[in-house]
Design brief:
Number of strands: 0
Distance between the termini: 59 Å
Number of helices: 11
Mean pLDDT: 84
């Protein structure tokens, strides 16, 4: 009996030692990752602030127009990819039969789309949204092209979010007399809204940082005006059918093609703006998730 207890104690000590070792390793990896990311963010923003010059933002071709193009294209892309991606994820999680041919084909298509290089998607977007429509490079063409990359992301996020909800919530709603659609809209989707926000943030971040897919579709000009009400004007900032260079494209062009003496400084400032924009979107999403989580838990938001 004593030997048995001794063996159990030794096994418990070894298990605790392994647990401490695993915790230490994972903590070290987390700290290392945090330090690397923090150093990267700090160095990019510091370099951008060091080269900051208000003259870079002035004029119709300044960074202000490039920043606006990035935000505008991101919004248009999310207006397309979020509804389509969520609808696809809802179908796969809520309506599709497990072994149906449509379900199999749809999942295969999503896996294929998620694995495509962005440059290939950009060439496809140029063929379909520019050449086949007999139009020109435009913000709409770029937004639709990037949406192709984001639909699988939103579909996967939605399917996983719905799949993690306890089945008792679904059956409880149905037992109270709600229809499947009422249960989905009023019960299930609100339960996973914080996960859906994560998918939207990831999609927005991908659009903001995308360059290859927009190289062939969005154009490379930032010549815009914020004054005027003629939305058909090629200079109107709110015209989605005009070309529009984004921050990522501006950084690429300034580093590889620009010949003016301040090109490197403009690229540094644009890089800082790009990173600040991504961090800002992430923080906004974090506060939205926190607020909604408290609301679902019945916490006070006062």
């Amino acid at each position: 009996m004593t030997n048995s207890k001794s063996v159990d104690m030794n096994q418990l000590k070894r298990a605790k030692s392994k647990d401490k070792l695993a915790r230490g390793l994972f903590s070290a990896f987390a700290i290392f990752f945090f330090v690397v990311v923090g150093f990267f963010v700090f160095s990019v923003i510091f370099r951008g602030l060091k080269d900051w010059n208000l003259s870079f933002f002035g004029g119709r071709r300044g960074l202000l127009g490039v920043l606006w193009n990035t935000i505008y294209l991101t919004i248009l892309s999310l207006l397309v990819s979020v509804p389509l991606g969520m609808a696809t994820g809802i179908y796969l999680s809520y309506y599709a039969k497990t072994n149906s041919p449509l379900n199999t084909a749809l999942r295969a298509g999503l896996r294929t789309l998620s694995g495509l290089p962005s440059i290939v998607v950009g060439l496809f977007g140029y063929l379909v949204f520019v050449l086949m429509t007999e139009s020109q490079w435009s913000i709409w063409a770029g937004a639709l092209t990037v949406s192709i990359l984001n639909i699988p992301l939103m579909a996967t996020s939605t399917e996983e979010a719905l799949g993690e909800i306890d089945e008792s919530i679904y059956f409880g709603s149905m037992a109270l007399g709600a229809t499947r659609e009422q249960t989905l809209i009023h019960v299930l989707l609100p339960q996973c809204i914080h996960r859906l926000v994560t998918g939207v943030v990831l999609s927005a971040g991908r659009v903001i940082a995308e360059a290859a897919a927009l190289m062939y579709t969005a154009g490379a000009t930032s010549d815009i005006q914020f004054s005027g009400v003629d939305l058909s004007s090629p200079l109107n900032a709110f015209n989605p059918n005009r070309p529009g260079k984004t921050l990522a494209l501006h950084i690429w062009g300034a580093r590889t093609q620009a010949l003016h003496p301040t090109a490197a400084q403009e690229a540094n400032v644009a890089s800082a703006l790009l990173l600040i924009l991504v961090v800002g979107v992430t923080l906004i999403a974090y506060f939205v998730k926190t607020h909604w989580s408290k609301k679902l838990e019945g916490g006070s938001n006062q």
